[in-house]
Amino acid sequence: MQTLWLAFTFVRGLGAKRIKNIYDTIPQLTENYFYDDEQKHILMKVIKNKDILDVLFHEKIMKEYIKQAQEVIRNHQKQDIHVITIGDKYYPKLLKKLGDPPIALYCKGNIDLLRISNHIAIVGTRHPTEIGKKFARRIAEIFVDNGYGIVSGLAVGIDTEAHIGALDAKGKTIAVLAGGLHSIFPKENTNLAHRIIENGGVLISEQAIGSPAFRAAFVQRDRIQSGLSLAVCPVQTDIKGGTQNTIQFARKQNRLLFCPVPTEDVPATRGIFKLLEEDAIPLKTSSDLPYIIQNIENKKCELLEDNKQSSKPILSSKIVEQLNLFD
């Protein structure tokens, strides 16, 4: 099953949205669909493009694509990289709900983290103030102590501080990269990437090894950061910048938005002030945290269509002791 979904990505014109439609309609599709008239009939209803169907129903071509997919998987396994496709049990539930999810994820480290939906994304500018750095670390520590994993993009600045904050709190963190996992970008975070893996975290990318970190890949990465998470916390950002992409994806994906109330008026906080005027929940003091955490838990039930009430404590005593930064 893993091989087939990866093979579909090689079919010209069969993008993520169309493959997702196939998956939603026939999640148990097998490599033997050539011989199953019912499955072929369903595919014809889902994919109405004749050129694409001609390829999908061409057994020789598709078997060649399947071989190609098997080779891609073997090449990644040689570098201890897991290839997880939309049909696999390790594929994140929240990410699968996107209209254009990555069909394959290339992952290095603890892939069990991908089966857990209790993550929040902490993101922000590559040029934070010292206060912004402290906020990022402390927010990561607080949410790790309350049972959440931390998602960020391994970029310099706020992303780096979020990952470090999670690790220092003995938590798990997911780093979403824009390029293939054959190399770490930016290079100055190579040691941090190793530390993430060594401490039970995971690096993931939508790009296969050898793929460059082209400009559009960073935007695609941003949708994955929010897509993996129940909530997104922009710590510092200007009015324009890469963080704004993640914010827009969070809105589109119906994720909770919250952010710390700035204590300084500088370019790195202008986007946060604007966000607070729009739809973000403010995090200013310790009294704001129970409300935010409860809203995250409500969002979890909503996104996963789970009517069970969370048994998670709203605020642990350890967190209360660490809230002086916000008081």
Automatic annotation (TrEMBL):
Q: Which GO terms describe its biological process?
A: DNA-mediated transformation
Q: Which Pfam families match?
A: DNA_processg_A
This one is known as: DNA-protecting protein DprA
From the UniProt annotation, give the residues forming the signal peptide: none
Indicate the segments forming the Smf/DprA SLOG domain, all copies: 83-289
Q: Which family does it belong to?
A: Belongs to the DprA/Smf family.
Source organism of the structure: Anoxybacillus flavithermus
Residues folding into a coiled coil are none
InterPro entries listed in its UniProt record: DprA (IPR003488), DrpA_SLOG (IPR057666)
